[in-house]
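Curious: can you check?
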Amino acid sequence: MAREAPYLEVAEALRTRVRGGEWATGERLPSRARLAEEYGVGRNVTQRAVDLLIVEGLLEGRAGSGTYVREPRERHRMVRTRGEGGPGPGAAWEVHSDARVPAPADIARRLKVAEGDPCVRTRYEFVADHQPVHLSVSWEPMGLTGATPIVLPELGPMKGKGVVARMRSIGVEIARAVEIPRPARATATEAALLGITPGDLLLHIERTYYATDGRPVETADITVPDLRLEIAYEIGLGHG
């Protein structure tokens, strides 16, 4: 039987010790060098083991200070169904829209408009249990919505109805949504906005809605901290 990679063995040993209460919540663990000596492995092995437990949410690293036992926190579930979803019951959001924002190159590519074309950019901060749980930045081309009542997503007659219903109200039917999830580590700015630690695991989701004629009508960047949310995709299966 093949032996596990050394860092997985060290991670399991540390996991057992933490869960067994050897170190209390908020207590600092021994240095990586000391753990390496204790387990008879290289420092790179203990580094990988500790990083794994940070990703799992059992530990947290504090720059210039060390590694600590993280306080257990409830994770909400974000259900992604047809590209829409939120952190669950009890969630609220803060929102701010800016009109006539020139489309940056990457957004222009995703919306298939010219770089610099005016868009409405809407920033969302979703909150549950008085904590920020995820962020989203949405872009819509004003060439599509600018002369309509839905130009600002969270104002007007379709306030809070979601992209699909809003677009339908102006005669645009959405056929599909494409989501591209990418793992990442929190930058200092993202960590400050989300109340987490720089370097914590994130999931960045690039989402784009397409109309029945193939036009992209909205694109968004969704930032989900692994510590706070788990992502669940519901996939409907047709019968036939």
In short: Residues 16 and 22 are 9 Å apart (CA to CA). The chain has a mean pLDDT of 87. The longest strand covers residues 174-185. The beta strands are 59-62, 66-69, 76-80, 92-102, 118-128, 131-141, 174-185, 201-211, 216-225, 229-233.
